[in-house]
Design brief:
single chain; 326 residues; alpha/beta; eleven-stranded mixed sheet; binds S-adenosylmethionine; Methyltransferase type 11 domain-containing protein; SAM-dependent_MTases_sf; Methyltransf_11; S-adenosylmethionine-dependent methyltransferase activity
Length: 326
């Protein structure tokens, strides 16, 4: 059984004690627990869009609420290749958990203790989805750059779909690496740079404007236009030219990112969510696999995988994985 994680105030490195649903350090600095999560930061930061998105689409991507899709579980185990039994009693850190699609997998499928962090108030959505696992889930609204844990604490650290949305991706990898204990594992997945054409895409063309729109206005535009854009991209896929043309239609990639068996209504909901997710973030910085691999090594993680993982037939995820040197 792994020992409990030491909590630290990331702003002064003082140990934090839990008292009356608060975290308190020796100097009396307090962080409240609100709606299931300890709050170390304010909501009004660059991830507000994600808070809006995940609190609006709280259940959409959670396997437990969908008979048609177990995409989160399939992707999680395709990327991690973890044996569920090995995680019993281990301390696992998840950074950038959103509505908790992968938190749910860890908590439902394993007996690990999960420390889950997000910079936005999406922690509230995560608590709604996973709060019934209170004995093994601890939630924190905090930044990847200022994590409230003693370094080298965790058996496993994972960070899925987050790095490209942080302002300094190298520093993000460094922060994650610091949390892994010797012999422990670090896994990240992220948007890759595949070539010069990666940024020749509706997302990168329109984002400078869309990320400045109010969240309500952007969502409303997407909802209004979702039907014809879905039909058009499905038509192009059907006649075999989707790979060439669909990158210029301002919706998410239906064929290569969404679960295959969604109902029509579910498909529309996923498209609206993923399209909002595509156009609203402050930062969207895809990375070269080789660069992330080198950062891992620089920060003391011996890489055992760096590349692309295929799951559900069409879906591709780019990941780097490794073990912290002793
Ligand atoms: C695209 S979402 C992915 C959420 C979840 N991992 C998933 O795959 O559904 C990216 C998440 O990273 C979080 N995030 C971005 N910057 C962060 C930071 N500095 N520290 C912690 N979380 C951050 C956002 O708030 C958002 O919930």
């Amino acid at each position: 059984m792994a020992k409990e994680i030491t909590l630290l105030n990331p702003y002064n490195q003082q140990p934090l004690e839990v008292a009356n649903d608060k975290l308190i350090d020796a100097k009396g600095k307090e962080f409240e627990k609100v709606a299931g999560a300890y709050r170390l930061v304010q909501d009004d930061n660059y991830t507000e869009n994600f808070g809006f998105q995940w609190n609006k689409f709280t259940k959409t991507q959670i396997d437990r609420f969908s008979e048609q899709s177990s995409q989160s579980k399939t992707r999680f185990f395709a990327v991690t290749e973890w044996d569920k039994k090995d995680l019993s009693g281990e301390n696992v850190l998840e950074v950038g958990s959103g509505a908790g699609r992968f938190s749910q997998v860890v908590l439902d499928e394993t007996k690990a203790n999960l420390y889950s962090v997000d910079y936005s108030n999406a922690v509230e959505a995560n608590f709604k989805n996973n709060g019934h696992h209170q004995d093994r889930l601890q939630l924190f609204q905090a930044s990847i750059y200022e994590l409230p844990f003693a370094p080298a604490s965790f058996d496993r650290v994972f960070c899925f779909g987050v790095l490209q949305h942080t302002p300094d991706v190298k520093k993000s990898v460094q922060s994650l690496a610091q949390m892994v204990k010797p012999g422990g594992e670090l896994l990240v997945d992220f948007y890759p740079i595949r070539g010069w054409w990666t940024k020749v895409h509706a997302k990168y063309i329109f984002r400078p404007w869309t990320k400045r729109m109010s969240h309500e206005k952007l969502l409303c535009r997407i909802e209004k236009n979702a039907n014809w854009m879905i039909r058009l991209s499905q038509f192009f896929n059907k006649i075999g030219i989707g790979k060439l043309t669909n990158r210029f239609i301002p919706i998410c990639d239906i064929k290569n990112t969404l679960p295959p068996d969604l109902t029509k209504e579910q498909l529309k909901e996923w498209v609206i969510l993923d399209t909002f997710d595509m156009f609203s973030p402050e930062y969207d910085q895809p990375q070269r696999v080789e660069t992330v691999r080198q950062w891992f090594e620089e920060f003391g993680i011996k890489v055992d995988f760096a590349g692309t993982i295929n799951f559900e037939g069409n879906n591709l995820v780019t990941a780097v994985k490794g073990i912290k040197k002793g």
